[in-house]
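Exercise 7.
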Amino acid sequence: MWRQFRLEISAAILILLTAWVWTSGRLLNGAVLGLEAIVLTGILAVRWGRIVLHRAIWHLRDRLIVAYLFIAVIPIAVIVLAARWVVVDVGGQVAVYLVSTELKRTVEELAETARTLAQAPAARRDVVLDEIASLYTDRLPGLQARVSAGPADLGPAGVVAQQGRLYLRARAAHNQQIVTLQAPITRRTLSRLAPGLGPVSIIALDADQELALHDDGSQAPALPAKRNRFDLELRWASQMSVPSVDDASRPREALLGVRSRVATLLETIFAGGTSEQADLRNDMRLAVILLLLAQVIPVYIGVSVTRAITEAFTGLHVGTQRIMRGDFSHRIAVKGDDQIAEVTTSFNQMTGNLERLLEVAKAKERFEAELAIARQVQEQLFPRTVPEIPGLELRAVCHPARMVSGDYYDDQPLGGTKTMLVLGDVAGKGVSAALLMASLQACIRRQVGDLRAEPARTASPAQLVSDINRQLYASTSAEKFATFFLAIYDHSTSELAYTNAGHLPPILVRGGKAEFLQVNGMVIGAFPGAKYEESRLKLEPDDLLVGYTNGVTDPENEFDEMFGEERMTAVLLKENGHDTTAVFNAMAATVHQFTGSTELQDYMTMVLVRRCPV
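Solution. The predicted structure, written as tokens, is:
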């Protein structure tokens, strides 16, 4: 019982403990316990709410009813809230923007007038002053102009404060003459920034600082009358900096506020009748139409989708019951051409193909079992031990991949001072490649047996490869072939005689350089009369000879780039000073890092031969 209701019991204990601590006068401890009780109670509410909700809407019909509520109610609520936010908040910001923009334009115009006056000849300055006074008589009553000599520091301009009063101020300098235009800001000045929009005010943000308008006897414009129930009042303010003429180092912060209504703001915006304003009106009408459609269309779609879901769900429920009883002949009636119909069709196809898929799964299991056997057979074909060759370090490694490959290597003592080294790659993958590899091994072992039986016979790599080619061609189909590298090493002379039948050329690392050995003929098993040549190489102390298959050079990264021979050669040159095991491990790690995968794309087979230092 404790485990089942541990949250409920813990919440009850916390609530009782909070009440006792609070009544005893320990307010701080009671507040902490109360917060913990609230958090735990909230967790309980979510838990029991989920349980009750799950039981209440267990049936699909009930869930769809809840979906209807969300489809109908939530979009309407979101649209109403969004519309309210757009109209009230954004509308207020637009109103303030209109006023502040007009105020900035007036300041810029006043500044341009000051520059014109400063650049006017002294003889015409009085005439220009009269023209300026007549131009701003109605817009900026009380505008004063002053010309004085002084430095180029013009001081504050724009909306400024002087002795607690607000002014519009502009200054310009020319030839050591400073022209100052200053007009008091009155209610009439602010109301003419956006005529008919509503009351505009500038108030100090800090109550200790006085920022007052000049009294010109006029009254502030009244808030426009409400035209309908949707004509909401707009209130917004924007912070602005008001420098002080008396003390420019201490600017004052003020709020530019506007009160208006939605209809009045729209009339102000569209008062010009330009093409841009007409386009904006059309866009707003289109938005209203789209919002209405956004309500009608979801309701219609919700009803249609619900009916289709309930019918399809009922059919699927009946169908699954029939399949559970083993009736794979049952089919569900398909209606419509939507995704639900596609699911129903897929269900019918599933029931029809289920038995066949079971057979395929059984066949796959048999194939994987056979593949595992083929992999075990292939592993048995590799030599279990590496012969000890005087003066030579030999390392042969084959890392398996997911599929069975045709990589093959072998090392066989021929008697005396000679040892045969073999590396091959059978075309293809899978069981057929493993079987061909077994045939190749049988041919090699037969040749080795003949050489051991006839000690006087000279072991020629070219002749051996030719014999193996004829035997492989005779024992396999025409399309089967393999690349093949066969070498005979004589440790008494450190001489290596080899024949490369179409295999990737081994790399000889000597003196900090890498060179590729020759290719002496075509692949084996393809043509019975193929001719092969042989080459000879004397291994010097510290020489490293590396034979490899395409499982080293062909792996690709995520950009479809192959590892390639250049990267392989770089690794060999870098790791040349280490033993052959370390060289192979470094090569494998580099390939895995290049591909970005721990799984090999193909068998990685390498035969490494190092001549020991004297």
